[in-house]
Amino acid sequence: MKKSILKTIALFMLIMALCGSSMDTSRAFTARDLGRGSTGDDVIELQARLQYIGFYKGTIDGKFGYGTYWALRNFQDSYGLPTDGIAGANTKKKLTSVSEYNEKFVMDNLAKGNQFTHYGGTPLSAQVKQGGGKTEQAHLPSKYSEQDLKLMANAVYGEARGEPYEGQVAVAAVILNRVEHPDFPNTVGGVIFQPGAFTAVSDGQIWLEPNERAKEAVLDALNGWDPSENSIYYFNPITATSKWIWSRPQVKKIGLHIFCH
Amino acid sequence: MFRRIALYMKKIIFVLSFALVALAVFSYDKAKENDKLALALSGQYAKRMADASEKLDELNIAIEKSLLFNESDGSKKAREDIWRLTSDIRGSIDSLPLDASFSTAWSNYLSRVGSYAKEADRLSNSGDFEKVMSKASKNLQLMSTDWQVATAGLVDGRYSMNEWVERLDAKSSDVDWSQKGNSVKQYTESDFPLTASESDAMKKKDLQNITDPEVSKDEAVSIFKQVFPQVTNDVIGVEKSQPGAPYPFYHIRFASNQTVGYIDITEKGGHVLSYLADRPFGEPAVSFDDIKQRTEEFLEKAGYRDVVFEEARENSNAWHFVYVRVEPLHKAKVFSDVIHIKAAKDTGEIVGLNAAEYIRKEKLEDQPIVKINWKTFFHNGVKVEKEELAYVENEQLKQRLAYFLTVTKEDEKGIGTYQVLVDTETKEVLKTEKLF
């Protein structure tokens, strides 16, 4: 009797241990379909699984771009699935059955901003390089980089955090309008750090940690919104010291800022 | 008792004196450090100013060299130098603490000199290059003197960093910056007047091509209510654009429940320029396909019927969609006429619309389509995944019909994807962009 109880307990523990280890390596996807443009934790899982079986060679960043698209199509082609580049229910089921996903490893390294890969057959500990910087899970038009997003969010937060949302998008749009304008530097960094161009740079407020609202405002500007209507300058009439700025043709007032050409 | 108090007092005085001395030492060190930083910075700035002066002389020599040759091939090297030097000097100017009007005027002039030299091959009359650049060379000499006068003080160490920054302020300046900026602006206008294409592009940007009748403030509000009926319970303010706006528009701000936002509508024709609504977003609850379908229904209802889906990007609270106008003759996508849509992931509601580019409506001309063999056009290993037609702006700001290709190239890093636009008539590659 005692022996059979012990056997049952041992069997139960073995089953639990197996469940525990499989939970660590085979997280289920969410129910939604994933395609080009998708972003999120399920895209991270998709990339990690595709990399595990050698189809995806890019960075695991949670952004479903062309690298993920071609990797997925090749996977679908290899496993006799319709090659549409969309991770639907059948594709995800097949992928889950032929790959593993160490969620903790992937998420920890993403949180720490480490450079890492998730190939099968190689110890995961040997696939990590410390550092590299955290990535934002934001999908940007291809001409802009994550650094642009970060710098602009800092600038918008430093310059206009008390302004309405529209005003924050407008400040971000002014930065982009300057990048496109022949009279200004042609990079986001060049425009923001042009001496004397932005008060937040001069007084160091650019280095404050931006909030989500400022990032969202920058994302809208990067995606094409321009509430400033093509303005290349703005100023606060209460605090502005330059006489010259008053000579610019004014377009619109948003919050405390006047936007001008 | 008194002795005890005296002892305490002594201790307090000692601690206070010690703290005072420590503070004084700290402040002295800090001030010294700041002085050192200011000196290092002014040194850097002085170096850049001196470099720019030197490069201005080099630029002038390069222009003179380019004027020696009749054929554009002969002046190629000198023209490349002009382009490189103008870029370098612009880089220096952009990173220097100068008066805004002065530095923008300089940047503009230099970029025009550089672009003109770069594009000289395209000039129909080679005499034009000599005419324009001779004038530019003469003016650059005058400007170079102005530059040296304006930047003296920091270059020769006469001013500290603080004094220099104060000097930029018009009230306490010994240099009339705006006058100097204006003279450079005049040189730009006389040496490099806008080309017909540039002037057309500017007109388009300023919506001068819209000839529709004006709408009133009330009509603008009713257009808003018609396009976005769900948020128009409470219009909170309608303002007309400021007099300096190149195209007059109505700026309507609204608040509806927890949603706050704005819409800009042109006075001419009542076209929506842009709309953006801000509200707290809930958890994503609507699928991508449903959001896309709702977006397309919205576009249809709002009258944007000649656009097709081009791209989608998911962000934390919303999907950003790009729709592009299709020209009917060749079914070519017109990349200058796009509509941006922002749709919420929680409800699928349209929370943003930008049609400022779409309403400019490019004027398109038909052009011959020459067949191109992509196997010989591209290197081995490059695969054309998709071939479409599109209208795209070339460097001279003219709309050209182009093959719009999505190509891939595989290497050890994976599969690289590129967008390539090739002129259908001249086979010129108008644009190549790496897609991520």
Blueprint (SSEs and pairs):
The complex is a heterodimer of chains A (261) and B (436).
Chain A: H1 2-25, H2 41-52, H3 66-78, H4 89-98, H5 103-112, E1 114-116, E2 128-132, H6 146-160, H7 165-180, H8 188-192, H9 199-202, H10 212-222, E3 233-235, E4 250-254, E5 257-260
Antiparallel strand pairs in A: 1-2, 3-5, 4-5
Chain B: H1 2-66, H2 76-94, H3 100-118, H4 126-151, H5 161-168, H6 177-191, H7 196-205, H8 217-227, E1 235-240, E2 249-256, E3 259-266, E4 272-278, H9 288-301, E5 307-314, E6 318-327, E7 332-344, E8 350-354, H10 374-377, E9 382-393, E10 399-411, E11 414-423, E12 429-435
Parallel strand pairs in B: 7-9
Antiparallel strand pairs in B: 1-2, 2-3, 3-4, 4-8, 5-6, 6-7, 7-8, 9-10, 10-11, 11-12
Helix pairs in contact in B: 1-2, 1-4, 2-3, 3-6, 4-6
Structural commentary:
The complex is a heterodimer of chains A (261) and B (436). Helix content of chain A is 46%, strand content 8%. Chain A is elongated, with a radius of gyration of 25 Å. Chain A is mainly α. In chain A, a hairpin with a 2-residue loop joins strand 4 (250-254) and strand 5 (257-260). Chain A has helices at 2-25, 41-52, 66-78, 89-98, 103-112, 146-160, 165-180, 188-192, 199-202, 212-222; strands at residues 114-116, 128-132, 233-235, 250-254, 257-260. With 436 residues, chain B is α+β, with helices and mostly antiparallel strands. Chain B has three domains: 2-193, no CATH class; 217-360, 2-Layer Sandwich (TATA-Binding Protein); 374-435, Nuclear Transport Factor 2, Chain: A (Roll), CATH 3.10.450. Chain B has helices at 2-66, 76-94, 100-118, 126-151, 161-168, 177-191, 196-205, 217-227, 288-301, 374-377, and strands spanning 235-240, 249-256, 259-266, 272-278, 307-314, 318-327, 332-344, 350-354, 382-393, 399-411, 414-423, 429-435. In chain B, strands 1, 2, 3, 4, 5, 6, 7, 8, 9, 10, 11 and 12 form a twelve-stranded mixed sheet that branches. In chain B, a hairpin with a 4-residue loop joins strand 6 (318-327) and strand 7 (332-344). Chain B is extended, with a radius of gyration of 30 Å. The relative contact order of chain B is 0.06. The mean pLDDT of chain B is 87.
